[in-house]
Design brief:
- With about 160 residues, this protein is an alpha+beta fold.
- It has seven helices and five strands; from the N terminus they run ββαβαααααββα.
- Helix 2 packs antiparallel against helix 3.
Length: about 160
């Protein structure tokens, strides 16, 4: 997974890593966000968490997330985007950027850059080449989790991996 564009948080030195392969526009990803957030809150001091964008195409939300990541604001945008109950269009994305106090000139340039779109497209190709075609997908220490919506199953696998350390 390390070769992909990934935003990390939690204990970045942990030997246990949980990857969430997700899409800001995916109904199931939105539905299960609170589960993943609860897992993060329980294990953030002991587990490294990585978020990987995946979708059928580079949507404005995915492009925005990479643009925010360039300014160290990925997780602030992530949390904001998953907690807004209305459709997030480009206008709302730029309002979020303003509220997160990013450099608006850099954000606009990044948001419109082909470099970010190319990076995202390469991510998608790599993910598909790894045999992953759906969101949300959870991988913990290179172990694909079948039921990515189960708090208990995710926690059990994390606990198993932590006990090996």
């Amino acid at each position: 997974m390390e070769k992909y564009a990934i935003a990390y948080r939690g204990n970045k030195n942990s030997k246990v890593t949980m990857y969430i392969i997700s899409d800001f526009d995916c109904g199931k990803c939105i539905e299960h966000h609170s589960t993943y957030n609860s897992i993060y809150n329980k294990y953030k001091d002991r587990v490294k968490f990585g978020y990987v964008n995946y979708s059928g195409n580079p949507s404005p939300l995915i492009i925005a997330s990479e643009s925010f990541n360039n300014q160290g604001k990925f997780w602030e945008f992530h949390d904001t985007a998953f907690n807004i109950d209305v459709m997030i269009d480009s206008t709302r994305i730029f309002r979020i950027a303003d509220s997160l106090q990013v450099n608006m000139m850099q954000f606009t340039n990044d948001f419109n850059s082909t470099e970010i779109r190319d990076k995202i497209s390469q991510n998608f190709i790599g993910i598909e080449n790894a045999g992953i075609y759906a969101t949300p997908t959870i991988i913990i220490n290179n172990r694909l989790l079948f039921n990515s919506a189960s708090y208990d199953e995710i926690a059990k696998l994390i606990d198993t991996e932590l006990s090996k350390q």
